[in-house]
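Chapter review: from sequence to fold.
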Amino acid sequence: MSLFKLSTKSYSELPQGQAAYIFGIFSDKGLPAEFKAAHPNLTQQIELALENGEFKAKLNQSLVLYTPTCNTARRYIAIGLGESEKYTADFLRQAAATAAKKVLDLKLTTLAIEFMGESYLDTDDAQALAEGLILGSYRFLNYKKSEDEYAGIASVVTLSNADIAAAMNYGMHVSAGVALARDLGNHPSNIATPTYLADTAGEIAKTGGMKLTVFEREDFEKLGFGGIQGVAQGSDVPPKFIIMEYRGGGPKAKTLGLVGKGLTFDSGGISIKPSAGMDEMKFDMLGGAAVLGIMSVVAEIKPKLNIIAVVPSTENMNGGEAYKPGDILTAYNGKTIEILNTDAEGRLILADGLAYITDKYELDGLVDFATLTGAVVVALGHRYSGIMTNDQEFADELIQVGKKTQDRVWQMPLDDEYAEDIKSKIADIKNTGAAREAGTIAAAAFLREFVKEGTAWCHIDIAGSGWHKKGRSYLPAGPTGAGVRLIMELIRSWE
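The token string follows.
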């Protein structure tokens, strides 16, 4: 998506000729005295709407008012903020997204927006406002032909007497990373191939001064990447093993590791999926998309930290060379895997990614993202990502960061006894757990086998949070970009 121009001005520099002016109203406070004094005619209209119950100022309600004689804007749009005591930065993010969507519905190009319920906002709130505006205005129209020439929002002026330009700018960068992750997920699998992901990584690496290494199919056998090699056998589309190295912190800074599942299409392989909903399997690379989205933000803001990112990427198809139930694969760390279900393929490519990154790099923490199990959707729906860990302190960091950003994670157990469910009689482990039991945890227990001892690691299953059938607020229908805001806040806390 193309980002609009976002600027800040003081109230004394009130812009003129805007298509809309956005302001917020608390349901329990009504209009502030300053607004009533400045806009007596608008006040009468709003108070009548409130009295009639047609507008209650509930969170994310909107009311459009027209002001033909006003020089500032031709429309004033009131956004409900809900109860003042419950108001949070995320409510601000939601309200800003609601405002952006209303502006898009009206096909307007310019707007000014107040600080939505607060006379003075801190930097977290200013960042949330920028994120809400950008994420709420997200549209993916790459393949949609339309006679409509409306190009979307061109510019937004944010009004404040505080110096919040840096926070707004940071929010824009983070949101751009989320938008990239969404775009990658929205592209069809005949476009967003492993090569496309590698090319995207190349563009990011060039911008951020990163080292990029891409291993090809012919490299897998000599490197010992038996997991991704096995999964890729059934597809003629070239697989890629993408490695990005950002060295922004120097030798004494912390190093964060990221691994993202880049399964660009998942047919299920020989254990084929039902045809209904199989088109959604283009979303099986959203873990890799999240990692690329994160690295795109890193490339722009250049944090004083070291970050290693790995995205193993392939399709899972049914060609004549496809791997089969009963096969045994050998992952990068030498562990053998009995294949019982070829549709449990994501953990196989992640196995190589986790084993490689923890073998080659000294990491202070490692996070992997994957749309890994339907079981996590059953457990948590589409609101939380599931998190499992071998290091409680590291998991607690991510849980707290999730609460702050509302890119939320919910911890599930990973006790040692779950390893019993993945033991194989003829190999070191098998790629499925106990039938219809703790599927999400069994997948994490499998992945733990490939994390080098002593590495603090968290597995985040975004099968539910990574995409939505029905959008809400700043989360659209389709890919959400889950994980990007979470990790960017972790990075900021580590600097």
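Two observations follow directly from the output. The longest strand covers residues 306-316. The chain has a mean pLDDT of 95.
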